[in-house]
Amino acid sequence: MRVAVGVDAYRITVVNAHGRGDVILPLAPGHSFSPAWSPDATRIAFVSARLDRSRPEVWVMNADGTARHRLTRKGDDPSWSPDGRTIAFTRSSTLYEMGADGSGKRLLTRNAIDPTWAPDGRSLAFVRAIAPGCAGSRRLQPRCQKSYEIYVMRADGSRQRRLTHNRFYESHPDWSPTGASIAYSGTSSVFVMNADGSKQHRLASGLDACCPSWSPDGMRIVFDVQDAYLYTMSADGSGRRLLYPHNGPCQCGEPTWSRR
User: Is 90 helix (H, G, I), strand (E, B) or coil?
Assistant: First the structure.
């Protein structure tokens, strides 16, 4: 089991499940962030952009950083389908899917970011801005800070349903390996809820915690704190421990745990 993370100068780094053996992968054109493992853990989709992130593009590479190539001219938030054949991504806050080779792009829904596939491949969770005038903006403007909610829909874009009604700034949903739960970020905390939106509760608070990702066995969750440290905790929020780095803060965040 390995964790990929955007770190220092927006490079992709891979560490083992104990936070050791970090390998900084070769730098793609621009700065690299938002890594996403393929289901078989042989490839990593990621986003590359200039420092100002004015034109993000979705790329893919082998797990060792070789064979890098671009899939989109503009895109963000890549997420692999469980069968590895499809990648969901966003472009200007519109959610698309495409083949893993970048072919066959198809619009799924508008006003959506942060897509994540359910383990059975039948559904996608995503984040939508609900306040007027906030769609298409990731900026934390005062009137938009509480406008992002988590939705779920079928893989074809139909039967969309809102799961959260907290009016927090919610983001980065991630399905548990069984598909029974969804972890997500909200108001500098990590939350978890049942896949139908019930039993929402906070796991990590007061830490400026973000971007949870489940371990393959569903027993632990990795998350970042203040874009400077990675921590893991048990699925119930107990047993919190520092994962990476062990020698002081770094610019690191958006961890994703390989499914193998």
Answer: strand
Q: Is 42 left (phi over 0), alpha (psi -120 to 50) or beta?
A: alpha
Euclidean distance between CA atoms 84 and 100, whole angstroms:
7
Hey, what amino acid is at 213?
S
pLDDT tens for residues 141-160? 666 767 889 999 999 999 99
Tokens of 213: 């990702």
Reduce the DSSP state of residue 237 to 3 states and report it. coil
Q: What is the spatial distance between Cα 201 and Cα 233, in angstroms, rounded to a whole number?
A: 15
Q: Are 78 and 66 in contact (CB under 8 A)?
A: no
pTM of the model: 0.92
Residue 96 pLDDT > 90, yes or no?
Answer: yes
For residue 142, with 0-12 CB atoms within 10 Å meaning exposed, 13-18 middle and 19 or more buried, which class applies?
A: exposed
Cα(59)–Cα(73) distance, integer angstroms:
9
pLDDT above 70 for 136: no
Q: How is the chain split into domains, by residue range?
A: 2-257
Q: Comparing C-alpha atoms, which of 248, 249, 172 is closest to residue 214?
A: 172
The domain 2-257 having CATH identifier 2.120.10.30: the answer here is yes
